[in-house]
Amino acid sequence: MVGFVASPAQAHDPVFGIGPHVLYKGGVEVAPEVDAGKKGSERETEVGLELTYGLTGDWAAGIDLPYRFSNDGSEDASGLGDVSLFTKYRFWRHDTLGVQESAAISAKVKFASGDEDKTPAIGSGSTDGILGLSYGYESRKWYRWASIRYRRNGENDAGLRRGDKVLVDLVGGVRPKPTGYLEPDTVWLLELNGEYGRRAEFRGSKLPNTGGTELFLSPGIFWTKRNFAVKAGIQIPVASNLHGRQDNSDYRSRLILEWHL
């Protein structure tokens, strides 16, 4: 590409959790993403495109466009998933020699744009909202993040409301070798991702085999070179306490490519 000056992709966020990183004013981030997971006989892959714009130096907003492939063990389905709009505002930043600390609030609204009539369903049929708070510490060698999110799920036309969720993430990272701007840069990550879900409800009645707690240990990598970055990781379940008869998650994986323009 010709005709613009690229900005380095030097700020980092976790793979599965969230961080306080925002784009500079007028910046554009283009991020294709692939998510895959297995839970019992169910498999799901989502290919998405996330577009983010820096409204100011501390405020960014964007859109997430997913396409999903699902298999429930007997049937396949694919189609456009639920589109989301999101925003993040960094309300605190503290810089010292070689270290940056910051905190941000985030919000996301997922719309009922996917097809819920397919088998298995591609969309949820409900409009859902997510609020989050994140903290990040970044130095030349060490990184750490902490975040908490609350997901409020809406009700679909049939009267089903999936249980609300609380997500908590603790993440550490290390850069084994400090590098210069023109050199490739690698940061290794280890995340602890916890999820607590309330029981789903159908027309006001709680469903017994829904909700519960899962805990994942998630190794990952963040590799950058100037304005391009690769993020990848896998979530490995280490503990679960699901209500009733439910399959535990087998694994989840994520691959993200990022361009900062």
How is this structure best described in words?
The chain is mostly beta strands and 261 residues long. It has one domain: Beta Barrel (Porin). Helix content is 0%, strand content 62%. It contains no helices and 16 strands. The strands form two sheets. It has a twelve-stranded antiparallel beta barrel with strand order 1-2-3-5-6-7-8-10-11-14-15-16. A three-stranded antiparallel sheet has the order 9-12-13, with no helix packed on it. A hairpin with a 4-residue loop joins strand 3 and strand 4. The N and C termini lie close together (10 Å).
List the helices and strands and how they pair.
Blueprint: E1 28-39, E2 42-54, E3 59-71, E4 76-80, E5 84-96, E6 99-110, E7 128-139, E8 142-152, E9 160-161, E10 165-174, E11 185-197, E12 201-202, E13 205-206, E14 212-225, E15 228-242, E16 249-260
Antiparallel strand pairs: 1-2, 1-16, 2-3, 3-4, 3-5, 5-6, 6-7, 7-8, 8-10, 9-12, 10-11, 11-14, 12-13, 14-15, 15-16
List key phrases describing it.
Porin, mainly beta, 261 residues
